[in-house]
């Protein structure tokens, strides 16, 4: 309560406006270090698949083509990762550069800081902005020297390009291993299917039951035609010869033999034991043939998938496209002395106005 009379408007102005402005002016005039910015704009693009995909190959290789937007987001996270920081520090001496500026107490990197703090400092000096519409990354690199800022931006692009190539080729190699495994399994299934066909042929001593059944049907039809012809001749002979005549008996014997042969052919196709019926054998053989044909088609598909995966594993599938290359800055972008001082002055004036209002309200209540 006793401090309120001492808070005169002049003293408030000196404490809340003049003092901060003087301190800020001294800092920006004598201590603040210039920070130069090198900027680059990049994106990740998928290489065109020149070889047209065969039917079904997309199923085997479908996971190899993630959208460019996702790849660009992966690059953004990689740029701000500890792995990237360590690589840049080994290449350029990143920590030494940021620790070399000793006059600026706010934006320098103090020696002996932990790697976690160094990572946070690095992230504040390297901005990575993502454009949701165009899937573009804008990389803004700050350095106390313009040459170093450009070299740092170039190194970030080189490391990012290696990262894109590495993970895209790793995915392609995994797809190749998967396709080769599918090829081996298809090859084994094809061999088993073919061996079953050979075992069936050896077991029943028939090369093709379907063709055998077709031939048996043709022979049966021919025997039926011959039988009808002989029966017609028999009726003709019996019209003018006795039944015990030599010609009639001979013709009857031919008809009986023909009927026996016809019964044999008919029985071969549909009667008899299950293992001897041509219709069942033909049905089983067709099933084995369909299985063999299906496994052969699957083998061809797997072989084509392996070839496509092998091509993708050796070529450049994805690439980092540089829309705007880093350039050497001619003037320092930070600190923005005039802008920061003007902003600070506005904030101090607002703080002064609020403080005056609070003090005046308290005095009115005291009175």
What this model shows, in words?
It is a single chain. The protein has 367 residues and is α+β, with helices and mostly antiparallel strands. The protein has helices at 9-31, 57-61, 68-79, 82-92, 94-100, 115-125, 146-204, 209-238, 246-270, 278-314, 337-366, and strands spanning 36-46, 126-131, 136-143, 318-324. A 4-stranded antiparallel beta sheet has the order 2-3-1-4.
Secondary structure blueprint with pairings:
Layout: H1 9-31, E1 36-46, H2 57-61, H3 68-79, H4 82-92, H5 94-100, H6 115-125, E2 126-131, E3 136-143, H7 146-204, H8 209-238, H9 246-270, H10 278-314, E4 318-324, H11 337-366
Antiparallel strand pairs: 1-3, 1-4, 2-3
In short:
This protein has 367 residues and is α+β, with helices and mostly antiparallel strands.
List keywords for this structure.
rod-shaped, 11 helices, 367 residues, alpha+beta
Q: Structural class of the helix and strand makeup?
A: alpha+beta
The backbone outline, from C-alpha atoms, is: rod-shaped
Low-confidence stretches: 49-67, 271-275
Q: What distance separates the N and C termini?
A: 12 Å
Assess the beta-strand content as a share of residues. 5-15%
Averaged pLDDT, please? 81
So what's the oligomer here? single chain
The helix-strand sequence is HEHHHHHEEHHHHEH
| DSSP E strands, number | 4
């Amino acid at each position: 309560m006793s401090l309120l009379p001492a808070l005169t408007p002049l003293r408030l102005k000196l404490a809340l406006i003049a003092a901060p402005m003087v301190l800020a002016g001294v800092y920006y005039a004598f201590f603040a270090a210039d920070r130069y910015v090198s900027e680059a704009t990049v994106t990740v693009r998928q290489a065109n698949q020149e070889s047209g995909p065969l039917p079904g190959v997309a199923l085997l290789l479908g996971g190899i083509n993630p959208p460019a937007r996702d790849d660009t987001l992966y690059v953004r996270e990689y740029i701000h990762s500890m792995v990237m920081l360590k690589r840049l520090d080994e290449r350029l001496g990143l920590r030494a550069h940021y620790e070399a500026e000793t006059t600026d107490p706010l934006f320098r990197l103090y020696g002996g800081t932990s790697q976690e703090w160094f990572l946070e400092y690095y992230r504040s000096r390297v901005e990575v902005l993502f454009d949701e519409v165009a899937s573009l990354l804008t990389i803004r690199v700050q350095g106390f020297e313009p040459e170093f800022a450009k070299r740092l931006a170039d190194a970030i692009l080189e490391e990012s390009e290696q990262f894109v190539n590495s993970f895209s080729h790793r995915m392609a190699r995994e797809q190749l291993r998967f396709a080769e495994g599918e090829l081996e399994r298809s090859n084994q299934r094809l061999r088993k299917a073919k061996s079953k066909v050979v075992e069936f042929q050896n077991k029943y001593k028939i090369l093709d039951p379907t063709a055998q059944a077709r031939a048996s049907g043709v022979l049966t039809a021919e025997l039926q035609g011959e039988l009808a012809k002989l029966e017609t001749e028999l009726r003709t002979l019996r019209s003018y010869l006795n039944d015990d005549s030599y010609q009639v008996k001979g013709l009857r014997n031919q008809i009986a033999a023909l009927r026996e042969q016809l019964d044999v052919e008919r029985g071969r196709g549909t009667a008899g034991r299950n293992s001897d019926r041509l219709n069942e054998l033909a049905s089983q053989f067709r099933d084995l043939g369909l299985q063999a044909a299906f496994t052969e088609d699957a083998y061809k598909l797997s072989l084509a998938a392996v070839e496509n995966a092998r091509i993708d594993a050796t070529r450049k599938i994805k690439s980092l496209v540089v829309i705007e290359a880093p350039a050497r800055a001619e003037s320092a972008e930070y600190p923005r002395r005039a802008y920061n001082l003007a902003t600070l002055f506005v904030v101090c004036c607002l703080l002064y106005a609020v403080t005056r209002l609070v003090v005046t309200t308290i005095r009115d209540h005291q009175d």
